[in-house]
Amino acid sequence: MDLNLLVVLKALLEDRHVSKAAERLGMSQPAVSRALQRLRLSLEDPILVRTGTGYDLSSRAAQLQPQLEQVLVDVEAIMQPVVFDPFQAEGVLKLTGLDLELILLMPEFVRMLRHKAPNLSVEVVPQRSEHFELLERGEVHFTITGLYPQSGHDQFRRIEIAKSGHLCVLDQKNPLAEGQMSLHDYANASHGLVSITGKGPGMMDDALSELGLSRKVMLRLASFMSVTEFCQHSDLVFTLPAVMAQHLVKNTSLVVRPLPAEFDLSEVILYLYWHERFHHDPMCRWVRSELTQIFTPSL
After folding, report:
1. Distance in Å from the first CA to the final CA of the chain
2. What are phi and psi of 139, to 5 degrees?
3. Is the pTM higher than 0.90?
4. How far is CA 290 from its chain centroid?
5. Dihedral, CA of residue 11, residue 15, residue 20 and residue 24, to nearest 10
6. HEC string of 73-106?
7. Phi-psi group of 289: left, alpha or beta (phi > 0 → left; psi -120 to 50 → alpha; rest → beta)
8. Range 208-213, long-range pairs (CB < 8 A, 24+ positions)
9. What integer pLDDT is reported at residue 298 of this predicted model?
10. Pick from 163, 116, 100: nearest CA to 289
11. What counts of helices (H) and strands (E) characterise the chain?
12. Whole-number Å distance between alpha carbons of 37 and 8
């Protein structure tokens, strides 16, 4: 049924007169008469019946009147835009991402939530190799990653929240820790590699290949968080996004050094991704607005 007919039905039940209902609704009398005929066919009931003093409600119409009032109130509530009040909001905001990316980017955001949305809980869901599937299944609201979805690109939206160049991380007693590192020194060093996906060579292997060189990867890790322990007091060199490298060397025997000048690498960009299902969700819209105020692509 056309929901507009319910509005006409409400006016007819209250005024019990086609002309009065038309005047109330700002419609023509013939239009209301046609609506009444459609209502009679749909409900299989006359709705208005003639009496000695005019028109009255049929038995069915009298039963419908209080139900109709509630239905129209409910429909109006459905059609009203939801106003999100962060201070009163309750629920759970679910995020996923690599541990180090979350450590670098989320504490300030969580501090903001404790101030502006104190009843909103945050749950960090363990990162999986196919974390875009978590978004697709609706198990998380957001993921932070520098990777790209392999399929279903039209399902996901994103904003850039961080951008970073690259630095070498090595122990302060490593001979390469002093002075500018040459391309030859870099290629002949013992390298560590963080491979989140566990597949294929690293980005630096491709960069060296373009220069006609190769390197020896002596240690392959699955997490950035373990770099510090393995790199300290060793001859290993890790090439990491600068924002991560600078965080990892704090309070350690590790230092950072620039890459050889011959490399021309694109910056690493970290994105906040979400699925289309949450694009218009009031809570998620507010979260994205706050995140864009916190983050700038300047890291």
Report:
1. 56
2. -80, -20
3. no
4. 12
5. -40
6. HHHHHHHCCCCCCCCCCCEEEEEEECHHHHHHHC
7. alpha
8. 211/183, 211/262, 213/183, 213/187
9. 42
10. 116
11. 12, 12
12. 11
One-letter identity of residue 126 = P
User: Between the CA atoms of 253, 256, 257 and 258, what dihedral angle is there, to the nearest 10 degrees?
Assistant: 170
State the pLDDT at residue 78: 75
> What whole-number distance in Å separates Cα of residue 264 and Cα of residue 121?
42
Buried/exposed 263-277: b ≥16 CB within 10 Å, e otherwise:
beeeebebbbbbbee
Q: Average pLDDT of each block of 10 consecutive residues along the chain (299 residues)? A: 86 92 92 93 92 89 90 78 86 89 87 94 81 88 88 89 92 93 95 82 91 94 91 96 92 95 90 92 92 68
- For position 38, what pLDDT does the model report? 93
Amino acid identity, position 183:
L
Q: Of 261, 223, 216, nearest to 240 (Cα)?
A: 223
What's the pLDDT at 260?
Answer: 95
Indicate the helix (H) or strand (E) that contains 286: helix 282-294
Phi-psi region of 46 (alpha: psi -120 to 50; beta: other; left: phi over 0): alpha
- CA 244 to CA 169: how far, in whole Å? 10
Reported as half-sphere exposure (CB side, CA atoms, 13 A), residue 142 has a value of 25
| DSSP 3-state of 187 | helix
